[in-house]
Structure prediction request, 515 residues.
Amino acid sequence: MIISILERIGNRFINFLKRMGSMVIFFSSAISLAVKPPLKPSHVIKQINFIGVKSLFVIILTGLFTGMALGLQGYYTLSRVGSEALLGYAVAIGMLRELGPVLSALMVTGRAGSSMAAEIGIMRISEQIDALDTMAINPIKYIVVPKIIGGIIAVPLLTAIFDIIGILGGYLVGVELMGVNPGTFFGEMESRVAFKDVNLGFVKSVSFGAIVSWVSCFEGYYTGFGAEGVSKATTVSVVLSSVLILICNYFITSVML
Amino acid sequence: MIKLVDVYKSFNGHEVLKGVNLEIPDGKTTAIIGRSGGGKSVLLKHIIGLLRPDKGQVLVDSTDISRLNNRDLNKIRKRFGILFQGGALFDSLTVYDNIAFPLREKTRLKENEIRKMVDEKLEQLGLLGTGYKYPAEISGGMKKRVGLARALIMDPEIMLFDEPTTGLDPIMKNAIYNLISKMHKKFGFTAVVVSHEIPDIFGIAHYVAMLNNGVIVESGRSTDIQKSTNPVVREFVSEGVVMPNFEIMEEINEEIQY
Prediction:
């Protein structure tokens, strides 16, 4: 009884390690193929359009409401200690360091990550990936590399837009609704926000862009059989990407803060 | 010549190929027959290097492709074309772009040269006027023909057909067999056809090999296999089947299809 439980735990652990190993090998082969010519920029641009441009609406919408909520919360908290003047700074720091990169990446995971996993998964079960192989075209280079590069480029750009829209949302609530002085709102922000705050958000968004596209492509590439396999790959890609984003967020913050 | 020597392959402890030995002669059509789920497609994927055997050799002109690295394997793969069971067309590309795909990716041809070659293939395969359609908008038989056009566009020396007629109605089935037969005559490639369509397959195959329980139980000339006394082959082929006359059917189908 105890031995069989231990055996099961051991098997799961070994399978987990194998999967982690495959993920690392998958990512490193994608990176090594990315620097090997020929690289077709049109494929990358197509992915930037898919991951970035097509996520713009959802990013603007979530950014606006996140900034507005942050403005409202910030105002009531700061007004208790008579520091409403710091509202602009509080909103900007919250958006730049944490909410911008994390929420944009989670939005991209839900919109583009799931669709990348499903697309590659369907290509796998309908033998399209095998077809590429037989044409002597490396499927990782053709399908995965543009998506990873696209993710690394698009997510930081989306994060920047999310940050700006979020700060504007905070401004709307703080200045227009609650009556904070606009000069103070932007003045405090300008004098207190440092380059390292922007840099922290940038490093996070680049890492999250890589995580979303890497995990989604991996799950799709090694999908199980049939429609059920693709559906499972899609779910796992969203859950795993989201969890990894939140874990990495903590570690990047703790290292760079 | 393609030669499989003592090829073993198992998946998750389940043995699919248990020592396959097979010779596929150049310039002829060889059919691999056997029950559904018996490992025929697995065998075909070994021939093109999509799967590597656990044990044994897959020789293409005396080069063991199961030991090659990806770069050398890709050199060998350039000699192959394959028609997958479901066509394996890229659903984000139109019929035209699907056929042009290998030329755009693997050659430096100009777009007007590519257009000329693709149009020629569209015409040969009775697909004129469908170039702008997406795979989701065409029938199963058309998908197979587009898959065939894409496979033939690079003028392969060896063509592999994975269940080329599965899921098609009898008329379309005959049309596809006629097409394979016609293309073989025209281009002279070595063809390997995996199928369980009896007796139709005897109409196009020069040689037939029967895969049963993970091994080749008998192989030889198509006519000899039909007369085989091996009980496994006998049971599969069944006695008294009437061979279809593909020359007549070819003419009928040309009228129906094109």
Remarks:
- Residues 239-258 of chain B have pLDDT under 50 and may be disordered.
